[in-house]
Amino acid sequence: MRLITHLRHVDLAVPDYDKQRDFYAGVWGLTEVANDSGISFLAAAGSPEQYVVRLRKAAEKRLDLVSFGAASPADVDALAGRLRAAGAGLISEPGTMDTPGGGYGFRFFDLDGRTIEVSADVAVRAHRKLEAKESVPVRLSHVVLNAPDIDATRAWYETHLGFALSDTLAHPHMGQVMHFMRCNPQHHSLAIARGPHASLHHISFELRGLDEYMYGTGRLLRAGVRMIWGPGRHLAGDNTFSYFLDPHGNTVEYTTELEELDEDAWHPHVHDFSQPEVTDQWGTANPMNELIAKESFNDVDRGVFVAPPV
């Protein structure tokens, strides 16, 4: 039984906090909704989530945590019980949370040592429908994580958190390199990418539509933000993509029109990403190569099996 409903937020620790905060609350188009001595909470205009990114000032860059939603406190308790019985490392027991919007949740380590949070009953934030030409993120779309053994990590998320496989990317010489995982009808809220170490691959933000996605891409280019790949349209998920680097070298994506699946009828595909139309149906993006791939390996994550202090 699937107990997780959706992706809530991704939390980053950053040495150059002011520069990161200026980037996300500035040209990237999020809104700072709370700030507490070296911690910034940033919301997306069209999202009911209290925040979609949290930045924390720290000596070392790391992924602090990935947060998912559940439908009820009972589901949170059931998930905690399931993980406890399986011997997974619980960081905290389910209880009241003191982050913006409150709620009831707990934290635990996944197979690769990332901190994952699951919560329910978080207050809904006042949000709105974006207007035409508003090129700021509507919501958080998905997060992609690097793992040395993507099959083991995929199996862990399927077994313990109820994620389902949507599609896989493979290469004739490299084998399978990415699993797209879903927790609702959206093609993926999570993907597991093959990398040399556990780290953040990228965070993706949904824009209102194609025009807004292109306006946003153009705004970032004009601002001198480095685009590493795009603009284009993937085959798996059928979504558009423009990948940029934030000031600390984390890859962040603007996307739109991510595919919604009929889960009862869907069967996972294995796509050969050595075929150009698999990585980019439009043919407008710079070709995928090893240098682009390495950008998203990111640095070795210093937060593996170390819970964030807040």
Describe this structure in a few short sentences.
This protein is an alpha/beta fold. The chain has helices spanning 17-25, 73-85, 150-161, 210-222, 276-279, 290-295; strands at 4-14, 31-35, 39-43, 53-57, 62-70, 95-96, 104-109, 115-120, 139-147, 164-171, 175-182, 190-194, 199-206, 227-233, 240-245, 251-255, 269-272.
Describe the protein's architecture and organization:
The chain has 310 residues and is an alpha/beta fold. It has 2 domains: 4-120, 2,3-Dihydroxybiphenyl 1,2-Dioxygenase, domain 1, CATH 3.10.180.10; 139-295, 2,3-Dihydroxybiphenyl 1,2-Dioxygenase, domain 1 (Roll). Helices cover 18% and strands 35% of the residues. The protein is built from 6 helices and 17 strands. The protein has helices spanning 17-25, 73-85, 150-161, 210-222, 276-279, 290-295; strands at 4-14, 31-35, 39-43, 53-57, 62-70, 95-96, 104-109, 115-120, 139-147, 164-171, 175-182, 190-194, 199-206, 227-233, 240-245, 251-255, 269-272. The strands form 2 sheets. Strands 14-15-16-13-9-12-11-10-17 form a 9-stranded mixed sheet. A hairpin with a 5-residue loop joins strand 15 (240-245) and strand 16. It is globular, with a radius of gyration of 18 Å. 48% of the residues are buried. One of its GO terms (molecular function) is methylmalonyl-CoA epimerase activity.
